[in-house]
Amino acid sequence: MKFTKIAAATMCLALAAPAMAQDRDGWPDSITIGTGSQGGTYFGYGSGFGAMITEALGINAGAEITGGPVQNVTLVETGEHQLGFVTLGPADEARKGESPLMPGVPHEKVRALFPMYQTPLQAAVLASSDITGFQDMAGKRVGVGPAGGTSATYWTRFFENADGYDGVKVSNAGGSDTAGQLKDGLIDAFVYAAGLPTGAYAQLAVENDVRFISMDEETLGKMMTIVPAMAPFTIPANTYEDQPDALQTVSLWNFAITNESLPESLAYEITKLAMTNHDRMVTNHAAAKETLAENVLKNQVIPFHPGAVKWFEENGYEIPANLK
């Protein structure tokens, strides 16, 4: 019995050794992960991943509620947050100096770590609503999620630039709050952008009779013209209650980002943690089913951190020179 306990303890130490033995020079004592609003995918995904970092790497890592990608990319650029989650559209615009938070300031210190999942644009109304398609939202009160998020950025841009949407009154709030506003009749429609399944929509559909809106070809084409980074996407049937049919929409890829100053060894370990623990990542949030190394080159706009490059290339994924 004594030998068994000693052997078991030795095995535990051996498993822990790789995480503790690597070069930890310059590692911070804590890490803040910029996520999004409660009820959105980023927060659930980030809370779970932060717990993984704390357990595996011995660094206190916590998820912070933010306005979403537009804010996250700036928080990482300025070094206020060590990690952040972004959709590639806002990240690309920020790198070009087109961020609404820091206009004219190219975000050149941001580096990609690993692929997360696709964010589809989504829309729902109460079943009692007279809104059956996107064109019916003209003149209506529409909740678009928190200011600075992917949803607010691109839905607002769509309503302002597409023909036929005169009089749309945009409302900003977090995902859960926006769902509550729809339930209470304070807004007429809830349009959003988040990974599947989105908690705010899932709860809304369980508690209310809801109609989910699919994009027709005209709406889809308009969105991709206004936001070229978008690509067609299908939300599977029964993703939510009251959604028996597949929904046609568009999506953007999400990536985890950091600042170029993050130690290479830590960037390597964080990337490795996300890429080699798929089952645990999916436990954090179902959207992580797309958190796979094979999706690394879905990013063609943000240079990768050298630590991430090292992990991917060690594992057979060549990163082009323009992304290093």
The chain-level mean pLDDT equals 91
**Residues in helix, %:** 25-40%
Supply Rg: 21 Å
Indicate the structural class. alpha/beta
Straight-line N-to-C gap: 53 Å
Task: Give the helix tally.
Answer: 11
Q: Helix and strand string, N-terminal first?
A: HEHEHEHEEHEHEHEHEEHHH
* Anisotropy-based shape: globular
Topology at a glance:
Blueprint: H1 2-21, E1 30-34, H2 41-57, E2 60-64, H3 69-77, E3 83-87, H4 88-95, E4 110-126, E5 141-143, H5 150-161, E6 169-171, H6 175-183, E7 189-193, H7 199-207, E8 210-212, H8 217-226, E9 231-235, E10 247-259, H9 264-275, H10 278-284, H11 306-314
Parallel strand pairs: 1-2, 1-3, 5-6, 5-7
Antiparallel strand pairs: 3-10, 4-7, 4-8, 4-10, 9-10
Helix pairs in contact: 2-9, 6-7, 9-11
Quick structural overview:
The chain is an alpha/beta fold and 324 residues long.
Structure description:
By secondary structure, this protein is an alpha/beta fold. 38% of the residues lie in helices and 20% in strands. The chain has eleven helices and ten strands. The protein has helices at residues 2-21, 41-57, 69-77, 88-95, 150-161, 175-183, 199-207, 217-226, 264-275, 278-284, 306-314; strands at 30-34, 60-64, 83-87, 110-126, 141-143, 169-171, 189-193, 210-212, 231-235, 247-259. Strands 1, 2, 3, 4, 5, 6, 7, 8, 9 and 10 form a ten-stranded mixed beta sheet that branches. Strand 5 (141-143), helix 5 and strand 6 form a beta-alpha-beta unit. The radius of gyration is 21 Å and the shape is globular.
